[in-house]
């Protein structure tokens, strides 16, 4: 079993109580995050395969009158993402990875540079802020120039996903912040 599979299994193996306790801490950290007050356009993902449940975060963002955007795999640019506005009425479809995403509607696409915060999924992370994703490089490509664009990427994870060190590559993007418990 490789490291990605092992960490994903650890994440899936969390008991309902462990998951609930950790998620409550994560949700509180997000609610108290200073950048959230100023942010208007927030990208987040729909949870998949034992990830931190993002539905309560999305509900909270809507209550705060934030615009929420979900990633979809770009239909023309291989291994790239687009972000579409997500509301309670947005139809969702399963993509080729089995992950729910909004149906493509060009009227709902936001240019990446207009996002304020990007909550980022990850399989594993280390203390330095390096993350290991699912292996497609989607988020690394998208976040390559996040500092110049004044976008704040924030990883979401459980403590069991933390490694001592990730063998990062030159193209891997270091996250400035990872919220975990």
Automatic annotation (TrEMBL):
InterPro entries the record matches: FTHF_cligase (IPR002698), FTHF_cligase-like_sf (IPR024185), NagB/RpiA_transferase-like (IPR037171)
GO biological process terms, semicolon-separated: folic acid-containing compound biosynthetic process; tetrahydrofolate interconversion
Enzyme Commission numbers on file: 6.3.3.2
Residue numbers binding ATP: 131-139
Gene3D superfamilies recorded: NagB/RpiA/CoA transferase-like
Any Pfam family: 5-FTHF_cyc-lig
Domain of life of the source: Bacteria
GO molecular function terms noted in the UniProt entry: 5-formyltetrahydrofolate cyclo-ligase activity; ATP binding; metal ion binding
Cofactor names: Mg(2+)
Keywords: ATP-binding, Ligase, Magnesium, Metal-binding, Nucleotide-binding
Catalytic activity: (6S)-5-formyl-5,6,7,8-tetrahydrofolate + ATP = (6R)-5,10-methenyltetrahydrofolate + ADP + phosphate
Residues binding substrate, per UniProt: 46, 51
Record-stated family: Belongs to the 5-formyltetrahydrofolate cyclo-ligase family.
NCBIfam families listed in its UniProt record: MTHFS_bact
Record-given protein name: 5-formyltetrahydrofolate cyclo-ligase
Provenance organism: Gilliamella apis
